[in-house]
């Protein structure tokens, strides 16, 4: 019988320094089934790379940023028992990083940006493999670009599931019997072999994609929290970790602002029915959250999330002559710009919808272009300073008293928009960003305490 396979992913804080990586290595070594290890860049490194990629810096500023990254990587290297084993490789990666960072077209070319942003993961996978070896675990560093095929949408590439399955079968599968394979999260390559990335936080997604491609049984996401919480513990100290979650609930939570998991992570898990574990690499003994197809308990209220920096757009047709086909015209423009709309409400001649708008992201620019285009066919009104608060749970549409319980708790707040009914796992409302933390606290008390 074929051995059960576990894919373990370690996030940026888990691989931030030598001691943190040793914790990860112990977790890997303690579970024989862990054959593939997916790593993020050491904490802070990707942020520095993004800064280099997106800002026109002076030469001495570039030197400073590169130096910061060098310090992080060297402190890990120099803690190794035998740094010479990987020293040359790390030096040449840092040299490559330095060269791209100074490329005069970097700020204008997304392909160069991705080449640069891949460096964090490429360095940490080298070092994590070395630490596993020094703890007597046979481990190799594997270039994920050989198998993680994506389209060519640099900085936001989409995986080619079929190609990944095929390539992983040919090139990764044969490696995992003899060694633990350490590879890069977040990074991929297109058909021409050019480096791509999956979008910020994409390492979770990589782990799930590789687990799917290998037909793995489990996928562990090791981070700095002991699982997924009822809500962000930074909002209320009453938040508590959840022992279990369904794929649907986890996907809703990730999409609507829970920071622990990349929103796309659940797709491969769902397709292949892979149980996903979330836990803390610092405190593995504390357990964590298991995310699976179906849970023992499916309570109406499971968790609360908050998504910040939302833009609420209301479009209105000035003439009734557009009333027919109006929605179609609006959504055509949105679809053409590949925007994702989260919440929608409609009336006869008007539609309101929310857009995610994190400042300085690509979406902010695309949002602006889309709004300009919309204003050629209708009146457009834009409201900012809003957050979306979401109650995630089960069978919300059919459980009596669900909505009344929620609305009674927050009757003191002005709800700018409410979405309920389309999804049995989600009740969302748009509130002022000044109120959102209080809304979460009050709801948490009413529903969970
Ligand atoms: N290093 C990448 C980021 O910080 C990917 C990841 O950590 O998941 O976004
Ligand atoms: Mg992450």
From TrEMBL:
<dbReference type="InterPro" id="IPR018042">
    <property type="entry name" value="Aspartate_kinase_CS"/>
</dbReference>
<protein>
    <recommendedName>
        <fullName>Aspartokinase</fullName>
        <ecNumber>2.7.2.4</ecNumber>
    </recommendedName>
</protein>
<dbReference type="Pfam" id="PF00696">
    <property type="entry name" value="AA_kinase"/>
</dbReference>
<comment type="pathway">
    <text>Amino-acid biosynthesis; L-lysine biosynthesis via DAP pathway; (S)-tetrahydrodipicolinate from L-aspartate: step 1/4.</text>
</comment>
<keyword id="KW-0808">Transferase</keyword>
<dbReference type="InterPro" id="IPR005260">
    <property type="entry name" value="Asp_kin_monofn"/>
</dbReference>
<dbReference type="InterPro" id="IPR001341">
    <property type="entry name" value="Asp_kinase"/>
</dbReference>
<dbReference type="InterPro" id="IPR045865">
    <property type="entry name" value="ACT-like_dom_sf"/>
</dbReference>
<keyword id="KW-0067">ATP-binding</keyword>
<feature type="domain" description="Aspartokinase ACT">
    <location>
        <begin position="389"/>
        <end position="447"/>
    </location>
</feature>
<comment type="pathway">
    <text>Amino-acid biosynthesis; L-methionine biosynthesis via de novo pathway; L-homoserine from L-aspartate: step 1/3.</text>
</comment>
<dbReference type="InterPro" id="IPR042199">
    <property type="entry name" value="AsparK_Bifunc_asparK/hSer_DH"/>
</dbReference>
<dbReference type="InterPro" id="IPR001048">
    <property type="entry name" value="Asp/Glu/Uridylate_kinase"/>
</dbReference>
<dbReference type="InterPro" id="IPR054352">
    <property type="entry name" value="ACT_Aspartokinase"/>
</dbReference>
<dbReference type="GO" id="GO:0004072">
    <property type="term" value="F:aspartate kinase activity"/>
</dbReference>
<feature type="domain" description="Aspartate/glutamate/uridylate kinase">
    <location>
        <begin position="6"/>
        <end position="279"/>
    </location>
</feature>
<keyword id="KW-0028">Amino-acid biosynthesis</keyword>
<comment type="similarity">
    <text>Belongs to the aspartokinase family.</text>
</comment>
<keyword id="KW-0418">Kinase</keyword>
<dbReference type="Pfam" id="PF22468">
    <property type="entry name" value="ACT_9"/>
</dbReference>
<keyword id="KW-0547">Nucleotide-binding</keyword>
<dbReference type="InterPro" id="IPR036393">
    <property type="entry name" value="AceGlu_kinase-like_sf"/>
</dbReference>
